[in-house]
Amino acid sequence: MSYTRWFVITLLLGLVSLPARADFQVFACEPEWASLVREFLPDARITTATSYLQDPHYIEARPSLIAAMRRADIAVCTGASLEAGWLPTLLQRASNPAVQPGRSGLFFAAEHAQLHAPHDHVDRSMGDVHPEGNPHVHLSPDQLPTIADALARRLGQLMPEASSDILARYIRWRGGWSQHRIEWRRKAEALQGRSVVIQHTNFSYLLNWLGVDTRFELEPKPGLPPSASHLSQLLAAPGLKGVDAILIASHQDPQPANWLAKQIQKPVLVVPGTVADSDQTKTLAGLISTLVNTLAATVQEDSGGRL
Ligand SMILES: [Zn+2]
User: Fold this and answer.
1) How far is the CA of 293 from the centre of ligand 1 (A)?
2) pTM, full prediction
3) Which of 63, 174, 219, 254 is deepest in the core (most CB within 10 A)?
């Protein structure tokens, strides 16, 4: 049998997969989605619009991003109005038919998740309320696998020649995630009923999952900056002195958190709100582990101090 014939037969039997296109271009609105795409397509060329040092609600549709969107085979974003302030402009200016709304080249993670705290109507005077619910779903241990499954399928659909490799990588990723989830669950036992002050709702899915109370917020409404009057109201709130820490993301202004920390003598924890550069935080699982470990260490120190 000639080599060509053998190759065609094995190909038909699915025994050989063709090499994936090396020039597949991905536009990721946030670093978490860039890291998830990289899990399934390590060789893809990825442009990430925001970093862990930026607030993903507000960025500028700058020319380099428009150019990246123009050549994208897929745009992977959060959706649920998180990027409402800049993504529509970017899509319109790039005028790339592959990634227009309704096309398979535009993937919104939030469409594959159950969002918490949906609001029936939006009122800009209320700040950045997301009408569909809290879009910061990338730190949800339970929902990430569903999002990842949908993303892997979509990538496979757009690149059929790589679909079996993508599926294999997804299965491996899923196994790793389940292992991590067991570990997070175990560590969450020490966090049950604990409470932290947050600035915005960006860590809420994870904190709720861990059983950590997040009723105290530095922002008067999601997206409105902390004001002096809100902070003084917060300081008088019953139960505030019982919190373990004030938790903010690297991109958030630390001043309000530092002010409150001084008043109530509690630590300020600053952690990346999304995947970052260090070895521990460059994947979503690593980031969640870092967050869980940071909280567990704070709680342990706090309990130690009380003894
Ligand atoms: Zn938000």
Assistant:
1) 24
2) 0.90
3) 219
- pLDDT tens track for 117-159: 887 556 656 667 778 899 999 999 999 999 999 999 999 999 9
CA 17 to centroid of ligand 1, rounded, Å: 41
d(CA 89, CA 146): 29
Amino acid identity of residue 289, one-letter, is S
Burial of 126 (0-12, 13-18, 19+ CB in 10 A): middle
Please give the pLDDT value at position 5. Answer: 56
Q: How far is the CA of 116 from the centre of ligand 1 (A)?
A: 12
Q: Report the 10 Å Cβ neighbour count for 58.
A: 12
Ligand 1 midpoint to CA 246 (Å): 18
Ligand 1 centroid from CA 83, angstroms: 10
Predicted confidence (pLDDT) per residue in 258-292, tens digit: 999 999 999 999 999 999 999 999 999 999 999 99
For domain 20-180, give its CATH number from 3.30.450.30, 3.40.50.980, 3.10.310.10, 3.40.50.1980: 3.40.50.1980
- Residues forming beta bridges with residue 196, ordered by sequence position: 245
